């Protein structure tokens, strides 16, 4: 989720995050699951949100945009380093058969 927000930068809101995750992973995720996760990440201080301007194509409703905080970037870097460390010396696993 945090990586999709970083990729989308100032265009990150529920629908674009969903599209980014789907395009990169091939998995279809519900908008409800996206917003639940974003709310939890915001409660932990990893992201912050802001309301955009109301738009006519959304019936006058505003989009809620998300941005990764410094704490979120630290978490991404820490996780990336842990994965890199755990994979040192392993060859790509092609199958379990």
Q: What would you note in describing this structure?
A:
The chain is of the alpha+beta class. It has one domain (about 1-85): Arc Repressor Mutant, subunit A (Orthogonal Bundle). The chain has 4 helices and 2 strands; from the N terminus they run H-H-H-E-E-H. A hairpin with a 7-residue loop joins strand 1 and strand 2 (about 60-70). The longest helix is centred in the last third of the chain and has 18 residues, at about 70-85. The model has no long low-confidence stretch (mean pLDDT about 90).
| Fourth CATH level, the homologous superfamily | Winged helix-like DNA-binding domain superfamily/Winged helix DNA-binding domain
Low-confidence stretches: none
Largest sheet: number of strands, sense, barrel closure: 2 strands, antiparallel
Number of domains: 1
Q: Which descriptor suits the 3D outline? A: globular
What name does CATH use for the topology? Arc Repressor Mutant, subunit A
- Which structural class matches the secondary elements? alpha+beta
Number of strands: 2
Give the spatial strand order of the biggest sheet: 1-2
Portion in beta strands? 15-25%
Query: What is the second-level CATH architecture?
Result: Orthogonal Bundle
Total of helices: 4
Helical content (DSSP H or I, runs of 4+): 40-55%
Overall mean confidence score, pLDDT = 90
The first-level CATH class is given as Mainly Alpha
Between the first and last Cα atoms, what is the distance in angstroms?
31 Å
Radius of gyration: 16 Å
